[in-house]
Amino acid sequence: MYEVTCAEPEAGSVSILPVVGWLTVPAPSLTSLIDVVDHQNQPIGVVRRRDLFRLRANFRTVHVLIFNSHAELLLQRLTWTKGREPGRWGSSAAGYLHAGEDYPVAARRRLAEELSLTAPLADVGVTCLLDETVAQFAGVFTATADHPRSAAPAHLAEIEFRPLAVVEQDMAAHPDDYTETLRHVLMFWRQAACPGAARDENLRAEPVSAT
User: CB neighbours of 36 closer than 8 A, spacing ≥ 6?
Assistant: First the structure.
């Protein structure tokens, strides 16, 4: 069992801002509150981000796969100073959700924070993966953009478009060059009949929709 903190307003719960132009809510820091969820992805409390794995608290993340007009996939390489999976290639944009934040809002926020982008989102669904003995519920979206730019140099070492076939071939040959979550998310996207319609068969939570 793990402890959670009740999500009382005075405890620092987050007000979600309307998505108009640039988003001003920063990404969750180590001391920010994020939702703890049960095995059906339902919120049951909040916890400081830094305490997630110590308390074995299930949590939510968002991942956006960005393709350009040539159907190439944008990858981001994490800096070598990152605490988790340094130097590996990851999803085009990704991050934790604030307490009280929903998947579509988080996806738009991460596009703006990491890549200076605003773009329509297509909802792929929510998938569950094991992350250091706890469940990570990842909301997956796709978007199209040709000219992203890295807006988070402290977090991203570089970004690069690659043909999807090249990514998948290299991922099979050198899996440790890629984050575990990207490998899972990309397989989940591949298995989806079409973006916005599929969800993980093992997940009992209802899929989210991008609005």
Answer: 2, 4, 43, 44, 45, 46, 47, 57, 58, 59
Residues 51-84 have pLDDT tens digits of 988 889 999 999 999 999 999 999 999 987 777 7
* Gap between the Cα atoms of 151 and 192, Å rounded: 30
CA distance 179 to 198: 22
All domains in the chain, ordered by first residue: 28-191 (3.90.79.10)
Q: What SS3 class is residue 32?
A: coil
**pTM value?**
0.77
Q: How far apart are CA 97 and CA 52, in angstroms?
A: 13
Alpha helix segments (H runs only) across 140-195: 164-173, 180-191
